[in-house]
Amino acid sequence: MPETWRPENWLAENRMAERDAPPDPRGELDPAIAGRLKRGADGLVCAVVTEHGTGTVLMVAWMDDAALHRTLTTREATYFSRSRHQQWVKGATSGHTQYVREVRLDCDGDTVLLVVEQTGPACHTGAHSCFDEDVLLPPPQDP
Where in this chain does the record put each Phosphoribosyl-AMP cyclohydrolase domain (predicted)? Predict the structure, then answer.
């Protein structure tokens, strides 16, 4: 026989649903994380992006607290453009998205490492990595 509807059951179920709901990407960065970040004078932290599986360094970008929060809550790599002074989601216009598998904070708290699954090229030039084209010191030749 089905349980009789009771207001206290409804309240308990809805409180549980709220607690289990994913964080709102429009919210604020967890204060415990924000307190560990060492930002530059511009309020930004450096983000180094590597490819899951290969370890290839794809790009370096910048994040403000809101971009980091959105990245952590959606797993969509979100950065802060220093030239446009606004957030941007990687691949929102190009389709070259980054699904974030992991985010780590370095020992000094001034750089985050994003490990991503890259769709398409990571670089705006069309190269797979922003470090593909201009080699200043090639690896040594094997003897």
Answer: 59-131
130 is in an annotated binding site: yes
Alpha helices in 21-106 (DSSP H): 31-34, 65-74
The response to whether 46 counts as a known ligand-binding position is no
Spatial contact of 82 and 42, defined as CB atoms under 8 Å apart: yes
Q: What backbone torsions phi and psi does residue 99 show, to the nearest 5 degrees?
A: -90, 120
CATH number of 28-118: 3.10.20.810
Mean pLDDT along residues 57-67? 97
**CA 127, CA 79: separation in Å to the nearest integer?**
19
Bridge partners (DSSP) of residue 88 are: 79
Provide the pLDDT confidence category of residue 137 given band limits of 50, 70 and 90: very high
Q: What is the pTM of this model?
A: 0.80
For residues 28 and 90, which has the higher predicted lDDT (pLDDT)?
90
Please indicate if the annotation marks 65 as binding a ligand: no
Give the integer Cα–Cα distance in Å for 120 and 38: 32
The two tokens of residue 78 are: 């979100």
